[in-house]
Amino acid sequence: MDNEKPEVERNMSAESDLPQPETEVISPAPATERTPKAKSSLALRLVVLITFVIAVLACVGSGYLYWQLQLQSQQTSSMATSMQQALQAPENELRQLAQQLQQSQQASANQQTTIEALQQSDQQLQSKIATLAQRHPNHWLAAEAEYLVRIAGRKLWLEKDPQTAVGLLQAADERIAAMQEPSLVPLRKALAQDIANVQDIKTVDIAGTVFTLDGIIGKLDKMPLHQLGQHEQTADENSQQMSDSVSDWKSNLAKTWKALTEDFFTIRKINTDITPLLSPKQEWYLEENIRNKLLQAQLALYQYNALNYRQSITMARKWIQQYYDLEDEHTQEVLQALQALVNLTLDPINVQQFQCSAQLKQLVTYGKLVPATEAEQ
Fold first, then answer.
1. Which residue of 9, 165, 368, 372 pairs with 155 in a disulfide if CB–CB is 3.0 to 4.6 A?
2. b or e along 239-251 (b: 16 or more beta carbons within 10 Å of the residue's beta carbon)?
3. Burial group, residue 116, by CB count within 10 angstroms (0-12, 13-18, 19+)
4. How far apart are CA 138 and CA 176, in angstroms?
5. pLDDT tens digits, one per residue of 250-259
6. Other CB atoms closer than 10 Å to residue 162's CB: what's the count?
7. CA–CA separation, 334 and 219 (whole Å)
8. CA distance 222 to 329
9. Distance (Å, rounded) from C-alpha 348 to C-alpha 7?
10. Distance of alpha carbon 331 from its chain centroid, rounded?
11. Is 367 left (phi over 0), alpha (psi -120 to 50) or beta?
């Protein structure tokens, strides 16, 4: 069999060496149809891929452009803000300078007004000095007399002190008399009339009366209250004391029997009004009410209110007579002092103004007494 293989190979090689007829190789028809379709699908894919790449690049480019535009807008806004701030700073400075200029102008206007007022007051002062320099020295006495009359009015109407007011009016009359001018006789007559009117007011020692009321207020806590049947009980106890003599055994026996019977029944005769006993709190209120009435009397003295003064003294005296022991020494002293004070008379001050005030004002202003028509003008 080994020998047969070479022969076959030789035959096959011999056959291959023989010329063979030309034959057309025709590819199958389906193969020729699939090749253009594959090419067209590949081209379509390439076109889609290129389109996608272009779209991606367009999106990236647009995003980049948008980002650049945002950066440029931010830079533009920051530049505009900085430029606005740079422009606003000089404007603020100009506004501040304008305000400072306005304030300085206002201050200079105020200073000018102050300077004008000072100049005007200086002119008035110079005119007054010139007027005073031309006046007679007696005008100083007239000014002093006018001041004394004003003080006398305050003493009379505010402090209710007629005595001091009379002394001040007399001192003013002495100043007018020292001027030794016959033309001032009407002024001295008016001063004399004012002095007489004030002297007609009945003077009262207000300070002494107030001190007396203070002494009475200090004695209120020393006065004992009235106790029902206190004195009768003391007299009965003195009459019922038994003697040591043996011969008085009958009276001692009677006193003993009377003491035994009085332990069961007590009969007293009372000729005055019965006043109920007061509690400690009521006693305190009673004392404070009496003290308040006496203080009201002091205030009425300073006000020259005669009605209020008498009512306060009368009410305090009534309460003392009703609730305090009338046989006590301190109570009797207080009642006597209140009786003396209740008769005190307070005359009202009828003087409304001084007749010399208008003439003194004329003398100080014009240096002389002028008629009423000239004074009105």
1. 165
2. eeeeeeeeeeeee
3. exposed
4. 9
5. 776 777 777 6
6. 23
7. 8
8. 10
9. 188
10. 48
11. left
CA gap 199, 163 in Å, rounded: 8
What does pTM read for this prediction? 0.44
C-alpha to C-alpha distance for 191 and 174, rounded to whole angstroms: 10
Provide the angle, in degrees to the nearest 10, between the axes of the packed helices 138-157 and 356-366.
150
CA distance 367 to 375: 12
Residue 333 CB coordination number (10 Å) = 15
How buried is 164 (Cβ within 10 angstroms: 0-12 exposed, 13-18 middle, 19+ buried)?
Answer: middle
CA–CA distance, 209 with 215 (Å, rounded to integer): 10
DSSP secondary structure letter of residue 272: S
DSSP 42-66: HHHHHHHHHHHHHHHHHHHHHHHHH
* Mean pLDDT value across residues 54-77: 87
Which residues, in sequence order, are bridge partners of residue 324?
225
pLDDT class of 226 with cuts at 50, 70, 90: confident
Query: At CA 165, angle to CA 160 and CA 168, rounded to 5?
Result: 155
Q: How confident is the model at residue 208, as a pLDDT?
A: 85
Whole-Å CA distances, 21 to 9, 16, 18: 22, 12, 10
**How many degrees, rounded to 5, is the angle at CA 330 between CA 329 and CA 334?**
120
In this predicted structure, which of 42-56, 102-116, 339-353 has the lowest mean pLDDT? 339-353
Structure token pair of residue 115: 């300077």
Identify the band that residue 301 occupies on the pLDDT scale cut at 50, 70 and 90: confident
